[in-house]
Amino acid sequence: MVQPATTRRQRSWAEPFKIKMVELLKTTTAEERQRAIAEAGYNTFLLKSQDVYIDLLTDSGVSAMSDRQWAGMMLGDEAYAGSANFYHLEATVRECYSYRHTVPTHQGRGAEHILSRLLIKPGDYVPGNMYFTTTRLHQELAGGTFVDVIVDEAHDAQHEGLFKGNVDIAKLDALVARVGAERIPYVSLATCVNMAGGQPVSMANIKALRAWCDKHGVRLVHDMTRVAENAYFIQQREAGYAHRSVASIVHEICAQTDAATMSAKKDALVNIGGFLAMNDDDLYRRACDMIVVYEGLHTYGGLAGRDMEAMAIGIRESIDDNHIKARVGQVEYLGKKLEDAGVPIVRPVGGHAVFLDAKRILPHVPQAQYPAQALAAALYVDSGVRAMERGVVSAGRDAEGRDHMPRLELVRLTIPRRVYTQAHMDVVAESVIEVAEHARDVRGLRFTYEPDVLRFFLGRFEPVA
Ligand SMILES: *Cc1c(COP(=O)(O)O)cnc(C)c1O
Questions:
Q1: C-alpha 419 to ligand 1 mean position (Å)
Q2: Max Cα–Cα distance, the chain, nearest Å
């Protein structure tokens, strides 16, 4: 008699797709890479992608689309107004994510811009579970002040919490006591918090937050960029969700919130696009009025019809259980290899990336000399693997011009969705281990050019003597 699957031996699993088209990769020599990183001012954002072997800069807009998405591109209805693809997208958002109204935008920050301008007044405070670069900047440009209300353990790379993305409700209470609920237009809730290392929020925390918002008459806005990855962690880790589909958990999360901004370049498996979504009719009308100024008509918002079609199809693929298991599983595979070799990484491994703890790998480089920036550059020179800094450079300066000194000084190895194989992950792990073993050779950096905003994108550096 065949035993039920649960009692049989653990079996390997593989990606739930096979490869139909490939893109050839170029390899370079160490001398070529040394030259390339110096020319790029030791900033991996300024490297040419042709000089990169395995590109883990970001998971944004770099997914491999499916054959169905590519077929959908051919169904683009490129009408200026009322494209069929918009209505497909709107219906998909309603069904999968619960939001009644959808306004497409060119990408996530387009949605953040519109939402911040509509809801934030000068002098307002916007609490959120850790800042995100573009999100906070748009809040500040609208006259608001971001307040971090994530649980303390999110700032501790070694803390083993299962839901390190959770909001600390006591910090919200303290903010209300200090400034009053009328100064808080909304709470910004990110699922699978990017800057915390891709750490999830629990459903219990989301529901507690919903109750808090109702009590204080404050809106709850969802940065849903990585909602599917968050739902997968709830399924794996939270009591009562093991037998629920990821799709149903995604819907339940969204239904707790009032509005959402989405960078579809992440979870939704497209190369460009995003949207602003909400349930409130009046907010929708005001968003439509503003979108025509900054993005395009409310039925295309800066996107081609074909892009909206690919997004609608990608949203459905992204919440499939087999897809998300393989996606997060690949990230866990790389994380485990590094951990087994004793490389300090953020624990537990998050949904979209493995984060190297640069403070512990380069203890001889002071944070004022940008250890994570230096480590990312050294990794590139070793193997052509491109990672990025998520530490003091990304955190920028405060209103008085002083560096924000975040506790987390990290290098992010971000895994694109459906792009690389397990063998690529092995190559990455070997290179990281090699660089960590020779960490003493890595020197700190100083700015030679520092932009006023979002300095990590275009800043240039040189090694300190
Ligand atoms: C990428 C991202 C954004 C911004 O989206 P873009 O599409 O890059 O403009 C906002 N929030 C989070 C959490 C993100 O990861």
A1: 20
A2: 72
Active site residue 266: yes
Known catalytic residue at 456: yes
* Domain architecture of the chain: domains with CATH: 12-59+321-463 (3.90.1150.10), 67-318 (3.40.640.10)
Strands (E), 423-459: 445-449
Does ligand 1 have an atom closer than 6 angstroms to the CB of 271? no
| Two tokens, residue 380 | 């590139």
Active site residue 275: no
Cβ–ligand 1 distance for 299 under 6 Å, the answer no
Closest listed residue to residue 230, CA positions, set 193, 192, 274: 192
Q: What is the pLDDT of residues 151-177, one digit of tens each?
A: 999 998 889 999 999 999 999 999 999
Token pair 């707790």 in the structure block, residue? 256
pLDDT in tens, 353-409: 999 999 999 999 999 999 999 999 999 999 999 999 999 999 888 888 888 888 889
CB within 8 A of 229, min separation 6: which ones? Answer: 191, 192, 198, 200, 267, 324, 327, 328, 351, 352
Nearest to 248 by CA among 263, 262, 231, 260: 231
Helices (H), 241-370: 246-255, 281-294, 305-318, 321-340, 358-361
Q: What pairing do the DSSP bridges indicate for beta strands 219-223 and 259-263?
A: parallel
288-308 as b/e, with b when 16 or more CB fall inside 10 Å? Answer: bebbeeebbbbbbbbbbbbbb
Tens of pLDDT, residues 8-63: 787 888 899 999 999 999 999 999 999 999 999 999 999 999 999 999 999 999 99
Is 324 exposed, middle or buried (CB count within 10 Å of its CB: 0-12, 13-18, 19+)? buried
**Token pair for 412:** 């992010």
**With a threshold of 0.90, does the pTM exceed it?**
yes
